[in-house]
UniProtKB/TrEMBL annotation:
Its cofactor is [3Fe-4S] cluster; [4Fe-4S] cluster; [2Fe-2S] cluster. Pfam families: Fer2_3, Fer4_8. It comes from the Bacteria. It comes from Actinomyces oris. PROSITE patterns: 2FE2S_FER_1, 4FE4S_FER_1, 4FE4S_FER_2. Residues 155-185 form the 4Fe-4S ferredoxin-type domain. GO terms for biological process: respiratory electron transport chain; tricarboxylic acid cycle. SUPFAM superfamilies: 2Fe-2S ferredoxin-like (SSF54292), alpha-helical ferredoxin (SSF46548). Its EC number is 1.3.5.1. GO terms for molecular function: 2 iron, 2 sulfur cluster binding; 3 iron, 4 sulfur cluster binding; 4 iron, 4 sulfur cluster binding; electron transfer activity; metal ion binding; succinate dehydrogenase (quinone) activity. Belongs to the succinate dehydrogenase/fumarate reductase iron-sulfur protein family. InterPro entries: 2Fe-2S_ferredoxin-like_sf, 2Fe2S_fd_BS, 4Fe4S_Fe-S-bd, 4Fe4S_Fe_S_CS, Beta-grasp_dom_sf, Helical_ferredxn, SDH/FRD_Iron-Sulfur, Succ_DH/fum_Rdtase_Fe-S. This is succinate dehydrogenase.
């Protein structure tokens, strides 16, 4: 197939970005989307032009580093990471035809400043985790696996929340650029387990304060975040976050 790529180019965080178009031919449907970008960069390098900067690592749908917005959708038209998107998935769209233009942009958020082209700085998510995503344990050998009973229902929900890979698609899809699905997932997977109880209320307050300080927007329950999450983290993690926050605020008020 022949396609046109309309790609966001930006030198750094302080420069003004713009779109550039590139015509490509001989693209096969079995090629992954990142392989198409690799092929484009080979052509640009051969022409003595600056290659397009984009992030990737495992290319197996595990790390979440490869996220970009494709035709207005975070990670593209399928619910997966960008590296698992193939050209056949785009070709399945009835509006897609030979010579179609594919628009590629970076994540858009105050919390994700553009470093170069399609690469954004997602260290804000790391700082949210650092603010409270831990538990207090005594150092030493690991305890027996069965020494702390965990209800099956809570264990399953904790694993479901822990599946979050921090790709940032939830932020890119949210009209408010909120990272509440990510923050809710990190709060939920610890708050559901016995080991996470000592810091439970302090955790939600600290992590939400950091979330807001990073410039992410508030949640208005639109649900776009859960719809694009490649690991199917459910919207319920935000409900748990809100319940813990309400409890923390009530406990704080009650103390006074």
């Amino acid at each position: 197939m022949n396609i046109k790529l309309k790609i966001w180019r930006q030198k750094n965080q302080d420069s003004k970005g713009h779109f550039e178009e590139y015509a490509m031919s001989g693209i096969e449907e079995h090629m992954s989307f990142l392989e198409v970008l690799d092929l484009l960069n080979e052509q640009l390098f051969a022409e003595g032009k600056e290659p397009v900067a984009f992030d990737s690592d495992c290319r197996e749908g595990i790390c979440g580093q490869c996220g970009v917005v494709i035709n207005g959708q975070a990670h593209g038209p399928i619910r997966s990471t960008t590296c698992q998107l193939h050209m056949r998935h785009l070709a399945e769209d009835p509006s897609f035809k030979d010579g179609s233009t594919i628009t590629i942009e970076p994540w858009r958020s105050t919390g994700f400043p553009v470093l170069r082209d399609l690469i954004v700085d997602r260290s804000a998510l790391d700082r949210i985790v650092q603010a409270g995503g831990y538990i207090s344990v005594n150092t030493g050998g690991a305890p027996e696996a069965h020494s702390v009973p965990v209800q099956k229902e809570k264990a399953d929900a904790a694993f479901e929340a822990a599946a979050c890979i921090g790709c940032g698609a939830c932020v890119a899809a949210c009209p408010n650029a909120s990272a509440m699905l990510f923050t809710g997932a990190k709060i939920s997977h610890l708050g559901l387990l016995p080991q996470g109880q000592p810091e439970r209320l302090a955790r939600v307050v600290s992590m939400l304060n950091q979330h807001d300080a990073e410039g992410f927007g508030g949640c208005t329950n639109i649900g776009e975040c859960a719809a694009v999450c490649p690991k199917s983290v459910p919207l319920e993690v935000i409900s748990r976050l809100n319940r813990d926050l309400g409890h923390a605020l009530w406990k704080g008020q009650h103390a006074h």
